[in-house]
Amino acid sequence: MKKRYEIILLDILWLSAMVLSASFWFDIRFGFNIFYREHWHYLIIQQLTPGSILPSFYISLLLFIIVAIFGLYLISRPRLRKIDFSSYESPGNKILPEVIAPESINSIVSDSNYSPLTPAPALPRPPRIISPLQQITNPLPPASINTASVSVDTNNQDNKIKELFETAGYVIKEPPKINGLKLSLWAIGMDETLYIGLADSHGGEITAAEGGDSKWQNQDTKFTSPVWTLSQTVEKIRTLFNETLDNEIQINIKTFVVMNNAKIINRDSLEKIWQAFDVLVFDSTDTLADFMNNNKNREIGPDEQEDLAAYSDYIDTVANYFNKT
Do 178 and 237 touch, CB atoms closer than 8 A? Predict the structure, then answer.
């Protein structure tokens, strides 16, 4: 709707400019005031006498009308978003500004079983969308994600999460697998919204920790922080968006982690850290359901079908790209 108002205002501005230009031209060239009714009456009378009106008058009038209509067309023509399936290109090696990783933070308790994985190789560049790739000023290098500690027995949680989002009006997509991590939710909504969710089957009382080796602990075991795991995965997705999207298009990524009826006993001390990661943490699917009741997808407008279809195709392309790498 905002774009429609902008187009209407631009049309009014263009017509005003053309009318003022025509008024100046006809007054200087022919002594004819287009805002004066008696001049138009005089013109009608003179048309009854062949040859009494200069041909250049009609030519000037016609040119102003054509230019005005053509300008309105350029302003109001629809601009559809299309995916350009270009050939893959291998990105050059780029150096990041120093990024603080959990491994660089001194851990209070060292885990003797912890051993980082070998960094993944550089990924090929995916198909471009809408415009040539913009230059990335802060690309992130491939980071290894320890998925061994992330629980995979989450089928019931995954199904419940998808059901909640479908009820809230979002379009459910098949979640991609990124660096061995299978996401639990991959859903799109209006205004270029993308929800990315990860379910974790650990429950009970949990002591969470971010930094160091990012280990959480319940009464049974220690496991890698799902917040840290998801945030690293989302950084890869953000980098891909920055490489393949036009500058004016911003995808609103919303991420969350759902535990299995857990109680995070030190949640208050970690909320700000999770906010910095831009990840919401829910103790169960019930708390997620309360959140979704207040964050439903808005209804699609009649002139937004094509934009949503193009956005949906692009998200499918991104998922297929990650599944193949």
Answer: yes
